[in-house]
Automatic annotation (TrEMBL):
Residue numbers annotated as active site: C49
Protein function: Thiol-specific peroxidase that catalyzes the reduction of hydrogen peroxide and organic hydroperoxides to water and alcohols, respectively. Plays a role in cell protection against oxidative stress by detoxifying peroxides.
Catalytic activity: a hydroperoxide + 2 glutathione = an alcohol + glutathione disulfide + H2O
GO MF annotation, one: thioredoxin peroxidase activity
Swiss-Prot/TrEMBL GO biological process terms: cell redox homeostasis; cellular response to oxidative stress; hydrogen peroxide catabolic process
Protein name from the UniProt record: Glutathione-dependent peroxiredoxin
Organism whose genome encodes this protein: Pseudohaliea rubra DSM 19751
CDD domains: PRX5_like
PANTHER family in UniProt: PEROXIREDOXIN, PEROXIREDOXIN-5, MITOCHONDRIAL
Taxonomic lineage: Bacteria, Pseudomonadati, Pseudomonadota, Gammaproteobacteria, Cellvibrionales
A Gene Ontology cellular-component term: cytoplasm
E.C. number(s) listed in UniProt: 1.11.1.27
Location of the Thioredoxin domain: 3-159
Signal peptide: none
């Protein structure tokens, strides 16, 4: 069952790269008292994610923040090392690059994607959400391949 608008983000942990390696960050730390745009990709360094999805948020970070967004975060079922390297490769300094290595957070959202047919294992569906103080106010899940409803420009239009 997938999470919906009006639902609270589930409790959980993700990882972000710190000065001394991966550090746990809780969903409470990420979302409490903040307006957050969280977008998810099936995998770091994959074509659509690297050519369109992440770059759109990099170039629109200032516009999102001007609309009252406190934090922009990207999550994938990849480890913190991969997410950090991918963020650096795309100059994503304004974006929290979050690793959901085991897919626990993605599974708690009910937004997992079975990519085993492509040799990817279990991943995340491509989506974007706006979360205000832990409550989802907008949720855009891609119905098929491509980056449309979860693109930075589509999220900007919602704010």
């Amino acid at each position: 069952m997938s999470i919906n608008v009006g639902d609270r983000i589930p409790d959980g942990k993700l990882q972000i790269m710190g000065d001394n390696g991966p550090e746990d960050v809780t969903t409470t730390q990420l979302f409490s008292g903040k307006k957050v745009v969280l977008f998810a990709v099936p995998g770091a360094f994959t074509p659509g994610c690297s050519m369109t999805h992440l770059p759109g948020y990099v170039v629109n970070a200032d516009k999102l923040k001007a609309k009252g967004v406190d934090t922009i975060a990207c999550v994938a079922v990849n480890d913190a090392f991969v997410m950090d390297a991918w963020g650096k490769a795309h100059n994503a300094e304004e974006i929290h690059m979050l690793g959901d290595g085991n897919g626990d957070f993605t599974r708690a959202l009910g937004l997992e994607l079975d990519g085993r047919g492509f040799g990817l294992g279990m991943r995340s569906q491509r989506f974007a959400m706006v979360v205000d103080d832990g409550v989802i106010t907008h949720l855009q899940v891609e119905e098929g391949p491509g980056v449309e409803v979860s693109a930075a420009e589509a999220v900007l239009a919602l704010l």
